[in-house]
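Appendix B, Record 12. Input sequence as logged:
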Amino acid sequence: MRRKKGRFTRFMGMMFRLVSTLVIVGAAMVGLSSCAQKDVAEFADRQPTLMLEQFFVGQTVAYGIFEDRFGNVRRQFRVNLDGQLDGDDLILDEDFLYDDGERAKRIWTIANNGKNEAGLYQYQGTADDITGTASGIVAGNTMNWSYDVVLNMSGNDVEVHFDDWIYKQDEEVAINRAYISKYGIEIGSVTIVFLRGKAAAAVGPLDLSQWPE
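Logged structural output:
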């Protein structure tokens, strides 16, 4: 009798783990499906209109957080950005400070490639730590910007995919929501608030020598 009870307990434990795994996979697939269904063209009538090379020219500051797939805040960071026009290209110099003291830098070269068949502006960008070319489309006040980048995770270099959504709120504020995935499965997200113009001048440039206590 005890042997049968033990087998039953082990069987129920296996079933519980199986169901739990299926629930997690199902939730991930639902999340992926909802992200895939979002189309930047849906924002074509939203105002104020975003033009990347206009918004990011000059000095911009940003505050951001990184959350894992369960919504836990893993890192916080702040950024000073300097944007300059080189002909038709936007050169965007980004300096990062993370809450653990790490410093990082990325310099984007971003080109406006004109309108596509749907009448939406297309962008392409490159940076040293970006694999290949980033691509983006702007509709109304929104930009969908996607690229692959190598991140250091627990001492290992891992290539992940970023699916960025930038929403211009007014002439001085934009919000970026980025979804990070590996092998098509979302592993985290980033939220960034960009401030430019008078809003940036009121708080920046940010002190990136050390994280504030």
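Helices lie at 2-37, 52-55, 197-203.
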